[in-house]
Amino acid sequence: MAAPGRYTLYTRKGTAGAAIEAAAAECGVEPDLIDIPVGCPRDKWEAFCRINPRKQVPVLIHPDGTTITESTAILTHLADSHPQAGLIPAPGSSARAFHDRWLAFFQANVYEALLRENFSTRYTTNPDHAPEVRQSALDFIARHYVIYDQVLTDDGPFLFGQRFQMVDIMVWLLVWWSDRDRLAREAPRVLHLWHEAGRRPHLAAAAQRHFAD
Ligand SMILES: N[C@@H](CCC(=O)N[C@@H](CS)C(=O)NCC(=O)O)C(=O)O
Predict the structure, then answer these.
(1) Can you tell me the mean pLDDT for 166-193?
(2) Domain of 74: which CATH number?
(3) What H or E segment, with its residue span, contains residue 80?
C-alpha cells in the first residue's frame, strides 16, 4: 500500500518503466515502485490486471488514486504537474503542439511497431506469418526513424535543440529497443540524441537498472 500523497509506479525491468522512472526523477518525484515481473505471483498479477486490463506496464497511480496508463499520458502528466523541471512547453503553445505531435508520433508508430516486432504472433491469425509481420514491423520502425532524423537539426541533439524535453525521453527509450547499427546508417541524428540523452544522470541510472546485462 502506497503512502498517502505519493505516486506509485507499476514497472518491470527492461520496459517503458525505465522512461517513467527517469522522467519522474527529472521532475524530482520518487514514486513508490511496484515490480510486476514476468511470472509474478498470481494474486499480485490479478490485482495488477484489475488496475490495467491491458496487462501492461507502466502504470502510474496519482496521489489522489487516479490510474494513468499509456506512457505518453504519464510523461505529459509528470511534466505538466512539475513545471519547474522545464520538461515540456506550456499547454496551448505552438511549441507544445509541436512537442506533442512528435511524442504521439513515436507512441503511435515506433512503440506500436516495436510491439509488433516483439509479439508478432499476436498480430496474425496464422502463426506461420509471424516472421513477415516482424520484418514489416522492422521496416516500419526504420522508416519512422528516418522521418524523425530529418526533423532534428544541427542545433540538436534534441527536438528543441539543446533543450531536453519529455519527447526526448521517449525517443531515448525506444532506441534502447531498436537496431542501433541500422540507426547509425539511416538515422544518425536519432542515435546521437540517444547518446546525449543517456548522459543525463537520471537516464543513465534508469538505463543501468533496466538495460545493463
Ligand atoms: N501503449 C502502452 C504500451 C505499454 C506496453 O507495451 N508495455 C509493455 C512493456 S514496455 C508490456 O507490458 N508488454 C506486455 C504485454 O503486452 O503483454 C504505453 O505506451 O505505455
Answers:
(1) 98
(2) 3.40.30.10
(3) helix 71-81
